């Protein structure tokens, strides 16, 4: 992934000028109002009291904030990949992709875990979510180990692949990033680092847990590699059919799996606030809409070009999140730490970008 020093160029996804900042969040605000109203209605139906209604309303709002704080780095990485995609696939990701993200990861994914773990049908899982939320939450909690291993492995591969790139020419933390670029020519070095990390963490677990952790991690690694290979094959086929087409269905699949990996922590962590699947879906769905809005804004305003270290901060946050997910196989780490940690790294990279712009006379905005 080459990073040049060209001046930032902002522009809409369809070639139109960038919109005012607040315009990007119009749909997010609408979904927020509808979601919170739906949450309040659900709270009234469940409890029949004003206090119960306000409680569910508040939980939905907190879950939305949790999702936004955990997924800001996701928006930056989405924007980084989205700017390489053709306009057609950009629109497809921002429409179908968000539907998959909201309904697939926030509703279908938790149900699928229970279906597999409890060996029951999808309808029985839905009934359990509505009638036996405590049992549903217990099954989700028990499935946390393989989810952490799978998601942590995939995200670590995403983060390391950004830095182990021999064409990368913009460095933020130079003393480490230059070395990573230097060793990027060694084939499979990212895979080796991830496997060693997985082996270290699995060695602290019992025999059965170690086997589960390692197996899930291998599946996470294979998923990353398969998405890369499949994406390359699909996009190269697309180039044959449509000259110059880049970043099509392969990039779309990559972003969907990436979003899934980012969502693991938020979905599991949400059960600490409520055991009701429908409240979780409302809260995290609201947050997902803000991630979509931030992604569009970052692309159209050319923010990633204007603030040269912002991507670096996001990918450092991804690596940090992957390590946190691995650590959660040993101890519970509150989601607020995960969210604040990523936001802090991105904030520091943003501040470093502003300093660089001022020192080099670059234009911000």
From TrEMBL:
Q: Which UniProt keywords apply?
A: Membrane, Transmembrane, Transmembrane helix
Task: List the signal peptide residues.
Answer: none
Q: One Pfam family for this entry, by name? A: DUF475
InterPro entries membership: DUF475
Membrane-crossing segments per the record: 24-44, 50-72, 93-118, 143-164, 184-206, 212-231, 243-262, 268-292, 313-331, 337-354
Q: What is this protein called?
A: Integral membrane protein, YkoY family
Q: Which organism is it from?
A: Paracoccus alcaliphilus
